Amino acid sequence: MSGVASLGLRSSGSYGSLQQSNGQSPAPAPSPPLAARKAGKMSFGGAGAGGRGLLSARICKLTSRRRRILLLLLVAAAVLFCFLFSSLVSKDEDAPPGIETMLGISDQVRSFVNPVWTSSGRPITQGDSLSGNGLNTASQTEKQSDSDSSHKKLQGLSWSFPPSIVLEHHPCENFSFSPPPIDRKRTGPRPCPVCYVPVEQALALMPGAPSASPVLRSLNYLSGDNLISKESNHGSLFGGYPSLEERDKSYDIKDSMTVHCGFARGKIPGVNTGFDIDRADLSEMWQCQGIVVASAIFGNYDIMQQPENISVFSKDTVCFFMFLDEETEAAIKNTTKIDNSKRIGLWRVVVVRNLPYSDARRNGKVPKLLLHRLFPNVRYSIWIDGKLKLVRDPYQLLERFLWRKNVSFAISRHYRRFDVFEEAEANKVGGKYDNASIDYQIEFYKREGLTHYSSAKLPITSDVPEGCVIIREHIPITNLFTCLWFNEVDRFTSRDQLSFSTVRDKIRKRVNWTADMFLDCERRDFVVQAYHRELWEQILRSPPPPQPRLARQQPRKMLPDNTAKEPGKASGSKRVSAKRTRDKKSGSKRAHRSKVTGGKEFIQL
């Protein structure tokens, strides 16, 4: 047993100490706890291998314990990693509305560009069609096939999402505004530098939730069949003939409101209401959601301009709609082919019939101010007049003029005029509308309290917009603003610059909301203005201006050296002209030319 004496045995009284052996076998009593274990599991030999069995058991026990601890650590690390990853991905859902940072393209961005919902909460599919006053569902077979095609379209769309990015600081936070650069050839209004972010960064800065609508939560619209005019000079049948009393009540902003907002003769805008649209076009307009860029040409007044510098992602997710009347459609068909998809370039063409007004400019105010009624599922809209060409991506414009400022309505101010009274006089001088109607509108507003613009209205920077571009979010308060603005255009003149400040200030007095006005030079950076069709055709028909005729220079005759230089010869006069500099140096006060006629010399000054 001397082979095991050197190892020693643990004492029963102390688990951490060893009892040294004196060369004899240990006493059989009391037996250590390890002796109670089965020998077959602890030793590989006879009694002489008992010590080695004890050591092997301890090593196996320690090894298995370390494995268990290592396994627990690995499980804990995996749980911690999953928790951190899920918190990062859901960061955009927990962040407050406004400008925020988003990791990659979250589900809320994908849902922003993919699903479409009706007012009842049911998604619109391509199998839905308009019938009567509502939506009728197509057959099950058609819905299944449309669902498959829609799934394939969305599957292809997922490849066009920009790559994931992380923004710690806004790329334009150090950008400083600078006025338009000096250009001697362009003395009028010019574009100024504007800081935009790339499209993928604009998506990362998209608000996760709609902007708050102060006070107003639900907005409904008046309609009826038996509309009768009870007052003179107060609107049209399309607008519903709102009385002055109804006009005043529409500014009493409450949680839920019902106001006049065009399309007063029917329940569905565009269906037997005036400004009528084909059912197939309406169905596609209702399927549009997310962002719509809209424009219109009525009376063949402008030349259609194609947007430029539009990203592939925006071409897949943004709707581009161009409204035309039948006159403009006929003129376009003479020079341009409209395919079966009713598209000309990026524009999806919609032909409007049964126009409510005889004035083409007033008809243009319907889609300009009532886009929320024509596109009920859209969250953001960008309106541009038919004479303008869009040269920036829609996501960049929304980020620059809405999301970065945390506003819901943006319009540029006039480049020169800030006062409504000055704008009215300019309209009369330019023959924009008959003078009596303009004077009546301004006098009406003066009785309501309209004053000249001054610094006392700050932070409002202008009372006169350049209304050819409107960028807005479709929420109840902005929808109310454009409804009431349209009612003023319907009641008074079609010059919407005259009524803008009145509607804005009336709403601003009651709720904490106003329309943001950016610089006109910033607007000129993202749209390019073209000539109206009539003016452009006049320029093309007019002959080019005559070029100034340059005097043909006669070749100079060289005289031989021995030729006499008579004073009456032309060469003599040329010599005087050639020595003009020398004459000046010699003190002559005036260079002159001599001419000899009949032996007398005359001086020509």
Automatic annotation (TrEMBL):
Lineage top rank: taxon: Eukaryota
Biased composition range(s): Polar residues: 123-142
Biased composition annotated in UniProt, kind: Low complexity: 1-26
Residues of the TOD1/MUCI70 glycosyltransferase-like domain: 219-532
Pfam family, one: TOD1_MUCI70
InterPro entries (UniProt xref): TOD1_MUCI70, TOD1_MUCI70_glycTrfase_dom
Keywords: Membrane, Transmembrane, Transmembrane helix
Entry's transmembrane regions: 69-89
PANTHER family cross-referenced by the UniProt entry: ALKALINE CERAMIDASE-RELATED, OS01G0304300 PROTEIN
Name listed for the protein in its UniProt record: TOD1/MUCI70 glycosyltransferase-like domain-containing protein
